[in-house]
Amino acid sequence: MSESPVLITIPISHYCEKARWALDRAGITYQERAHLQVLHWFPVKRAGGKKTAPVLVWGDRVFTDSADIVEEASAKAPPERSLFPEDPTAAAEARALQGEFDLRLGPEGRRWMYNALRGHSEIAVAYACTGVPAWQRRALPFAYPLVTRIIDRYLDVTPATAARSEAEVRAAFDAVAARLSDGRPYLCGDRFSAADLTFAALAAAVLMPPEYGVPLPQPEELPAAMATTVSELRAHPAGVHALKMFREERRA
After folding, report:
1. pLDDT in tens, 175-190
2. Distances (CA, A) of 21 to 15, 119, 224
3. What is the 3 state secondary structure string of the chain?
4. Residues 109, 117: contact at Cβ < 8 Å?
């Protein structure tokens, strides 16, 4: 297998942050090729994926799901940096939680975020372009209305669906808080795992952590209603845990 993997991303995507975090934690050197939403479809398909990012190309192998990238990174990591406990039961628990967050928290938080930022092209222009080709950066101010219409349709973003998504996010946060209520430092006991990484990364859509892999707007830069919700979720016990994971584990 080649020692120069390529990670194709949407830079602000929380699933892409999940993949970056796993690879960084494992100490794997990779090239990131970032693209704007919708425009990412073309390089993703050329690499062997479908429409979603991240895609990791490593030699003759192509990983098209963030969970598969986490598995591969963990397998290549030193034992002390593995993302799955040695105990099979605990490892299965971490995988189950990862799957639940991927299926529920990730899409719901993303839908809420896109709706909350609707019409704020200045934020998209300021923060969506980290690492993308220069022509994409130049095109975004003009393409923004079309791109947002495509995203709204593709992800079913409406005020009504976003309201339901916010309720789902809050329910996911409540479930995480209940799991942590016994005083455990991590979701699967006494060590950081794929469950913590996935929860923190996917919660980033509603928390805007400063330690994220690319710059994100902070509450004072967000629309007022969105900033209020972000601040509330940051103060929630689950939000506190996610932000702590970013502070203590993202660059560890």
Report:
1. 999 999 999 999 998 9
2. 10, 30, 30
3. CCCCCEEEECCCCHHHHHHHHHHHHHCCCCEEEECCCCCCHHHHHHHCCCCCCCEEEECCEEECCHHHHHHHHHHHCCHHHCCCCCCHHHHHHHHHHHHHHHHHHHHHHHHHHHHHCCCCHHHHHHHCCCCCCHHHHHHHHHHHHHHHHHHHHHHCCCHHHHHHHHHHHHHHHHHHHHHHCCCCCECCECCCCHHHHHHHHHHHHHHCCCCCCCCCCCHHHCCHHHHHHHHHHHHCHHHHHHHHHHHHHCCC
4. no
Query: One-letter amino acid identity for 239?
Result: G
**pLDDT tens digits for range 113-167:** 999 999 999 999 999 999 999 999 999 999 999 999 999 999 999 999 999 999 9
Regarding pTM above 0.85, the answer is yes
